[in-house]
Amino acid sequence: MEMEFCAIGGYSEIGMNMCAVKVGNEVVIFDMGFYLPEVIRLQDEETVKTNLTRDELINLRVIPNDHVINEWKPLVKAIVLCHCHLDHIGGIPYMADEFNCPIYGSAYTIEVLKSILKDEGIKLKNKLKVLNGNDDVKLTNNLTLEFMPMPHSTPMANLGILHTPLGLVIYGNDFKFDNSPIIGPKTDYKYLKELGEKGVILLVCDALYAHEEMKTPSELIAKEMLKDVMLSTENKDNLIIVTTFASHIARIKSTIEFAKKLNRKIIIMGRSMDRYITAAENIGLVNFRKDAFITKYADQIKKKLFEIQKNPSKYLIICTGHQGEPRSILQRLATKDLPYEFSPRDQVIFSCKVIPAPINIANRVALEAKLKQKGVRLFKDIHTSGHLAREDHHDLINLLKPKHIIPAQGDVTKLTPLADLAEEMGYVRNKTVHVLKDGEIISIE
């Protein structure tokens, strides 16, 4: 029995994540994402236009080019989604139909996927199956899939653990170590060590921040940063706007908590905000609607903004637009496309980092310039990452002791720092640590 690995997407760019593991004559796919910078060019907020064909989307580099595994497609037994971010699941509506297999994800991931499919008017033939953390499912006689809960910047993220006769394949793209998460369980280091003792043949791991010589701080630190800005800054006579990742339910929860301490009416605006919050509420994870008015509809948003303009100091808005996306709520406020006149006292809190892609950087620079022209007070980088940094990777490798390591989630400049670390720890480039490009297939021996 042989094992092969195909890097389909996310190995020459940040996003568009997809790979396939072939064990004997059986294949498991991990992730099926889209490339957000290209998506931003094609659409308003967070869903791809449906009038483009599958091959057109591939040619535009919106979704991964999976033609490289055409011969493997009849052998695929499962599509595995380890969390709900669109650079990991956004390709599902346009790609999954070619695979005669179920799709596995946590309750939250599947709920978000159902929402995307409903919004796009797409019906898949694939069965959507919930597999929550600490559970496993037998895919075939030789392959069992297990999920291990891991903290990330969205709920119910997991390590994907594929049990094979050749050893464990561990897919960790994306997650972080966190001993004090706001939602979900903390990192189980003991179980990671147990997995290492069972024998890990391959670790595929997000290398996005492997160049950062640090340990990624807990989400609790981000909560304290947010608390400091919201509760310890002069804000008696002004509107407060907080913008963050719509899928970052823990961050939104913290924002609501502090807004209540300020006795502010909480208004949440934006289609993607509504999508991710509704998914979390549908599975009983949170109940934000008891404390906040949530809307995605233009007429309701405009009506609320007229109310807010009369007395801004009574309100706090949580909205889309942290990356300066062209049709996001914050961008439309800044360009007066929505009816609110900023005052120099108003505050905008960016509880995020800028995603390091040229279009995101350019959009944020333009947005910030517009807000500064209005005299708005900006609070940036009120955030901690959802990804491992270099010293976290060091600990992960020590715990799992994988035979092979494949860095994921980036081009060669992002993947190389993790490979360099692995070499320092005794791995050999192109033999036991592999920096791949989209479309490459290697044997795992």
Structure description:
This protein has 2 domains: 3-215 and 386-444, Ribonuclease Z/Hydroxyacylglutathione hydrolase-like (Metallo-beta-lactamase, Chain A), CATH 3.60.15.10; 219-379, 3-Layer(aba) Sandwich (Rossmann fold). Helix content is 32%, strand content 21%. It is built from 14 helices and 19 strands. Strands 6-5-4-3-2-1-19 form a 7-stranded mixed β-sheet. Helix 13 (390-400) crosses helix 14. The longest helix has 16 residues, at 358-373.
Kindly summarize this structure in a few lines:
The protein contains 14 helices and 19 strands.
Architecture (CATH level 2) name of the largest domain: 4-Layer Sandwich
Rg estimate, integer Å: 22 Å
- Structural class of the helix and strand makeup? alpha/beta
Poorly predicted tracts of residues? 44-48
User: What is the mean predicted local confidence, pLDDT?
Assistant: 96
CATH fourth-tier homologous superfamily of the largest domain = Ribonuclease Z/Hydroxyacylglutathione hydrolase-like
Strand content: 15-25%
The level-1 CATH class of the largest domain: Alpha Beta
**How many angstroms separate the termini?**
10 Å
| Count of runs of 4 or more consecutive helical residues | 14
For the secondary structure, the number of strands is 19
Helix content: 25-40%
Domain tally: 2
**CATH fold name of the largest domain, please?**
Metallo-beta-lactamase, Chain A
Strand order of the largest sheet: 6-5-4-3-2-1-19
The major pleated sheet works out as:
7 strands, mixed
What is the 3D form? globular
